């Protein structure tokens, strides 16, 4: 199976801070599936490193108040196109992210408080019919 995967979970240094979120459970998927790396923020034109951002309603803003919604939307659409072009049957995305989080994200106050919700890429993939998992739930794939 082809699976779209947040590149940071594969050890790519594209996390907002310039680091990665390498995850052994996600890396182990490569033994049984073909993994397609994606970083919607980078695909949307944002640099690495970049200021932290969180969703505030339908917008994504940085901690300094800059609106980066357009970049997150562009990255989400690019991720959906990549998933479709490569025949991905599922996605494993970084939990809690304003782009990739699915079911739970930071609440927009930059206080590390989680709330119900999903990131723009997770929402777009789900709307396209692609199931979304995270690093804690990918063991079912």
Detailed description of the structure:
- With 141 residues, the protein is α/β, with parallel strands linked by helices.
- It has one domain (2-140).
- The chain has helices spanning 24-28, 40-43, 69-86, 120-127; strands at residues 2-6, 34-38, 53-56, 59-62, 90-93, 104-106, 114-116, 132-134.
- A 4-stranded parallel β-sheet has the order 2-1-5-8. It has a two-stranded antiparallel sheet with strand order 3-4.
- Helix 1 (24-28) links the parallel strand 1 and strand 2.
- Helix 3 (69-86) packs parallel to helix 4.
- The mean pLDDT is 98.
Q: From the structure provided, what is the oligomeric state, counting identical versus distinct chains?
A: single chain
The side-by-side strand order for the widest beta sheet comes to: 2-1-5-8
Helix-and-strand structural type = alpha/beta
User: What does the largest sheet look like?
Assistant: 4 strands, parallel
Domains counted in the coordinates: how many?
Answer: 1
- Overall shape: it is globular
Radius of gyration: 14 Å
Mean pLDDT value: 98
Task: Summarize the topology.
Elements: E1 2-6, H1 24-28, E2 34-38, H2 40-43, E3 53-56, E4 59-62, H3 69-86, E5 90-93, E6 104-106, E7 114-116, H4 120-127, E8 132-134
Parallel strand pairs: 1-2, 1-5, 5-8
Antiparallel strand pairs: 3-4, 6-7
Helix pairs in contact: 3-4
Summarize the entry for a quick read.
The chain has helices spanning 24-28, 40-43, 69-86, 120-127; strands at 2-6, 34-38, 53-56, 59-62, 90-93, 104-106, 114-116, 132-134. By secondary structure, it is α/β, with parallel strands linked by helices.
């Amino acid at each position: 199976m082809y699976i779209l995967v947040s590149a940071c979970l594969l050890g790519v240094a594209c996390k907002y801070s310039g680091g990665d979120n390498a995850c052994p459970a996600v890396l182990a998927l490569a033994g049984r599936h073909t993994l397609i790396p994606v970083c919607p923020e980078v695909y949307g034109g944002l640099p690495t490193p970049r200021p932290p951002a969180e969703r505030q309603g339908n917008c994504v803003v940085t901690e300094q108040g800059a609106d980066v919604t357009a970049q997150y939307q562009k990255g989400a659409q690019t991720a959906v196109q990549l998933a479709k072009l490569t025949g991905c049957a599922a996605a494993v995305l970084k939990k809690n992210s304003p782009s990739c989080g699915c079911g739970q994200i930071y609440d927009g106050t930059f206080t590390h408080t989680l709330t119900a919700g999903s990131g723009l890429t997770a929402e777009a993939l789900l709307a396209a019919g692609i199931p979304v998992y995270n690093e804690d739930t990918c063991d079912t794939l």
